Amino acid sequence: MRKSLLLLTLFCISITSIFAQEKKMLTPMDAAYQNRSVYPVGKSVKWLPNTDKFVFADNENPNNLMVQDATAKSATVLLTLDQVNSYLNQAEMDSVKRMPNLTWLDANKAYYYSYDKTNNCINLNLLNIKENTISKVTSLPTNAENYTITTPSLKVAYTIDNNLYYANGDNHVQVTDNPENVVAGQSVHRNEFAINGGIFWSPDGNKLAYYNMDENMVTDYPLVDITERVATSKPIKYPMAGMTSHEVKLHIYDLTSESDLIIKTGEPTDQYLTSITWNPDNEKIYIGILNRGQNHLQFNEYSAIDGNYIQTIFEDNDDQYVEPVGPAHFLPNNNKEFVWLAQRDGFYHIWKHNVETKEAKQITKGDFVVTAFEGFDKKGDNVYYISTEVSPLERHFYKHNIKNGKKVKISKEHGTHSVKPSASGKYFIDTYSSTDVANNVDLMNLNGMMKRLHEAADPLKEYNIGTIELGTLEAEDGQTLYTRLIKPYNFDPNKKYPVIIYVYGGPHAQLITDDWTAGAGIYLHYLSQEGFIVFSLDNRGSADRGEAFEQVIHRQCGQAEMRDQKVGIDYLKSLPYVDADRIGTDGWSYGGFMSTNMKINYPEDVKVSTAGGPVMDWKYYEIMYGERYMDTPEENPEGYELTSLENKTDKLEGKLMIIHCTTDPVVLWQHSLVFVENCIHNGKQLDYFVYPGHDHNVYGPDRAHLVTKITEYFKTNL
After folding, report:
1. How far is it, in rounded angstroms, from Cα 430 to Cα 17?
2. Residue 606, pLDDT above cutoff 60
3. How far apart are CA 675 and CA 596, in angstroms?
4. Closest CA to 334 of 351, 354, 314, 315
5. Which one, 124, 315, 380, 595, has least CB within 10 Å?
6. 3-state secondary structure of 364
């Protein structure tokens, strides 16, 4: 009997081994985002404006665009590629090989951009399926950037170099004539404070608000271009912590009168102008004025007619920092009330403000974070939003009545959801993934799923992929820390494995989520495939856990984070299948800072580390991000000394490889070069590798080289 069981066991092991060998192995190119087949197939489903009809590409023929009413059982063909090309031929325009990416204005009209090979320009085109036509609205130069459209007039504002232009049909107007180092219409303040653009059309499309940034007073920082035989300097403007910042003003250009005015935001000149919002009446504009210390925000109303200050709607103060994530959102058909996302009770929640009475009412409440405001229903009675109420790892979609507080959770399945409501608010398109769903798209109503529109297969089922285990640990202050552990596909609990701790650890990021691969991505699966257990922990300071969890890092970046990572290390060392003498760390940017931090401070625990684009001393980092978390070097000398890694190289033991891109405009090359210099002075050996011509990370085909470099380093040394 025992012999039979043994033979059966050996047979099963043999069969399992054969099946494992039949599966594919991930490659460095897969881990470098160069192979789309290892990612789930998505499906774009869009509501037609002012209807309960949605459009999507036909599964069997992606060049057919289908339309379906939410209550209908089946879809019909709305538009085919042949029709599009017939419309283009009628207009004597170039034909296309695939369906354009359409943005619908109403149920009949949609616009899209296309490259015009004949005239070497970018065309904005208008499709009208009712009239069976496509017409060119305007043409933009190929060097135009930041183009921003206003509907329904389809005027387009854009930038060329440091100047702002707009196009109204064939009429192109240059709005600014700026000298060198004065930039119009682009993002300012290094894209902090939720700033992702510099052009703001008025609701009626007749006025154009725009940022104008003077950088003349900011220090030039030299980046080197080695593509020429004699390398050339390509300086950027980089204001380091404590140094002179740029000066930003908000202008308003009136298209009718062709006049330009400056909003009178006053002194000091190094304040931050955030959360630009037009009043629906087109006569007033709002700016979040954040002081350089980032602990006091005023949300001010200004006249769009003469630029004068009118009133302050509200003020927010915080002992650590205020981080606006605007803009404001006015209720439909209402120019007196808007909603705003603020962290006033320790968590980001939705607040309703009245510009006349100054009354502020909290709409959402609880120990969870509203991660995104998603708009209103048609009447403005309800707000839509996404939050972490179910779990910090999940994102769910809610409908919340502003007046009576009634709340409905629309998304049902566990995971990470992105939901779009129909015009009536009765139906919803829910796109989501989770730890057991690669990508689903569901048609929903308030009661639940009506129909599954798309279900993607998990492409990693074809590969040798290890198991993912999610868990929790406890920080020193009792906060819950979420963890993710990936085991090799051929895991044997009786063996001892080396571990790579993949870390980021900084603000605005969360590594561990309830979505496909639990947020791990292909790179970490590739590392586990190569024989490593791969572990991650979201320490305090990470995103979407509330003020107390995030702001603990203020004035001492890397300290609480490092202690939390030590909790993770101690947990790993307690596992019977972990080789406690073979633990390594890997990270990039803030993660590079953390990886180096852990190597220096826990040499008895961390044998090998790799650190890409690492912050080594916060005094070299830029003002907006750096001063939010560290204040200035003059205000916080002890904190800068405590967190600096360049002055701790005497503690370095074991194997460390630093990787940096030579033209990194975010974490300057100087960070790691100074660290290397100090290692030399202290007689410490380390490994160093650069990627010429890459910026803050390595992308494109070269990324496979980076993946291989890191993997081989751990294989050799861990």
Report:
1. 39
2. yes
3. 11
4. 354
5. 315
6. coil
DSSP for 654-711? Answer: SEEEEEEETT-SSS-THHHHHHHHHHHHTT---EEEEETT--SS--TTHHHHHHHHHH
95 flagged as catalytic:
no
- CA torsion through residues 58, 64, 68, 72, sign: negative
Torsion sign, CA atoms 466, 467, 471, 473 = negative
Considering the domain delimited by 2-31+459-717, tell me its CATH architecture: 3-Layer(aba) Sandwich (3.40)
Phi-psi region at 19: left, alpha or beta (left = phi > 0; alpha = psi -120 to 50): alpha
Question: 395: which DSSP letter?
Answer: B
Residue tagged active-site, from 270, 696, 702, 705: 696
Q: Which of 515, 586, 617, 664 is catalytic?
A: 664
CB of 532 within 8 A of CB of 501? Answer: no
Q: What are phi and psi of 29, to 5 degrees?
A: -65, -35
Residue 605 main-chain phi, psi, to 5 deg: -105, -35
- What pLDDT, on a 0 to 100 scale, did the predictor assign at position 7? 39
Q: For 382-392, write each residue's pLDDT tens digit.
A: 999 999 999 99
The DSSP 8-state label assigned to residue 24 in this structure reads: B
Question: From edge to edge, which strands make up the β-sheet containing 53-57?
Answer: 45-47, 53-57, 64-69, 76-80
- Measured CA to CA, the distance from residue 400 to residue 338 in angstroms comes to 15
Q: pLDDT over 90 for what percent of the chain?
A: 96
* Euclidean distance between CA atoms 608 and 208, whole angstroms: 54
Is the CB of residue 96 less than 8 Å from the CB of residue 88? yes
106 belongs to the catalytic site: no
pLDDT exceeds 70 at position 17: no
Write the CA distances from 206 to 156, 173, 657, 672, integer angstroms: 12, 13, 55, 49
Residue 13 has what pLDDT?
42
Overall residue count recorded for the chain in this entry: 718
Res. 621: pLDDT tops 60: yes
- Give me the chain's average pLDDT, please: 96
Domain boundaries, the chain: 2-31+459-717, 42-142
What's the average model confidence in pLDDT over 209-224? 97
List 473's β-bridge partners, or say none. Answer: 481
Q: Is 589 a residue of the active site?
A: yes
Annotated catalytic residue, options 589, 595, 644, 672 = 589
Q: Is 2.40.10 the CATH number for 42-142?
A: yes
Give CA–CA dist 660/691, Å, rounded.
Answer: 6
Task: Check residue 21 and give its pLDDT.
Answer: 56
Please state, as a whole number, how many other Cβ atoms lie within 10 Å of the Cβ of residue 690: 15
